[in-house]
Amino acid sequence: MQIPGLCYISIGLDDFDALKYGCTTHLATYILNELPKKLRNTVLLFDYPNLVRLNPSIPWKTRGNGAIAIRLGIPCEYASDLSVLMQIIEELVEDYINRFLSKFDVRVPDFEPGLVIARHPLSNDLASLYEKALTDVVVLDHSFISKLMRKGFMVSQRYGRRGIIGASAAIMWLYKGRDYTFELLTYRSKKMYGKSRCIDEESVKVFDNLTRGESFNNYDYKENRILITPHGLDPILYGVRGETPDAVKKALSIIKVCEPLVAWTVFRSNQATDDHAIYRVAKELNPFKTCRISGVVAEKPAIVRGGTVIVKMFDATGEVLLAFFKPSQLFNIASVLDIGDYIEVQGQVKLWNNLQVVHVEKIAILNTSITYKCRPPKCPRCGKRMEKKGLGKGYRCEKCGVIIFNPELECKKIVRGIAVKLSLPPPHSQKHLMKPIDRYGKERNGYSYELLPVTITTKIIEPLEFL
Ligand code: ATP
Predict the structure, then answer these.
(1) What's the whole-model pTM score?
(2) Which of 20, 67, 145, 321 falls between 20 and 30 A from 345, CA-CA?
(3) 431 CB within 6 A, ligand 1
């Protein structure tokens, strides 16, 4: 959609959460509410702000490796020289940080924020950046930054540290049609930071029932626990995820909270899509890559310290070690695998005791090998069961002395406690990117490059308590 006089830009943000109590989505909510005022309400928000999860195995992430992209239509006078807009956003960020710092002793050592602005149309040459940051390690060096700049990105000089990887990758999420979901994030009063969250459990179940099929992972009925609240110091009160903005916004009127809810924002996200689980073969695996890989079980599973199950698998290119850890609850399935089973797993490659292993987060058993238990035949003369006499020595009847070298053994198929099926960890152990079972069949591969204006996606209800 092209509106005369408006030029399109994307703002990318990442790694502002290292402020204790901070969170990059919180800063994004502040910018979304304040930037229009600074630009005299001449901006139009295109699309819901994007909350883009990146490689879950990156060791230097704080929590869920989330980055933000905000898509705006702005008067072309601001877009022709991005430095004016950059300065306005930097001032907002500075204001945000100063207000945090004046209230709390919050700056922590690994503060590596990144702020970038990109002019649209986005360059084809950066099309692979999102997938690389989602599934592998991106190196922040001079050539990375100069490529961004050549392709129409402006990198903040004030906030141009490691976070620019996530910030620019989030912007490039737009590029290809991909599956997506929505998340409503609500924020706490700053007076409540560090205290336990107060949410009415029954109302979460009501929300879950009323939005069944449109929202997911709200409540774990087996464990009787709420799944929508984080447990850290961050400013998020709760977050609900679903298929549409309307579905997740219903939470605002249904979920009852017993502490102030001071702001909210609806994000479009790659969460719950399995977008990180890309197909790889054994020889392509390296530490910190994410993968989906299929192969044949090569040895009987080994159970090691802590109950972790290790399985060796091979494909046409080599061998892979798979690790099934206790919290995923997949170790029950892993421990009954047998040689010859054909499986597909998804997970992240990590080093474990100096060995490269795939930390498995999902397993699908595609085919089970058939195993038989065999015993010697009966003696054809007297009917007594014969005995094996060692390699190459055949079977002998102890009663009448008959020897047979290649008898037909009596074999029975062993019934295995394992079925051809997909298994996921329980909802409370599912990480951000993992597609829950409820979403299978709901995938939309249509995150359109065409941006549409959206109106009500964020609100700061209590400005004095928000910041
Ligand atoms: P939160 O979920 O609370 O926002 P976080 O888990 O997103 O926190 P960050 O503090 O943002 O953690 O740290 C992630 C850092 O890793 C960022 O600086 C980001 O740019 C960088 N990063 C993300 N993906 C990659 C990647 N694939 N390769 C290299 N660096 C990456």
Answers:
(1) 0.92
(2) 67
(3) no
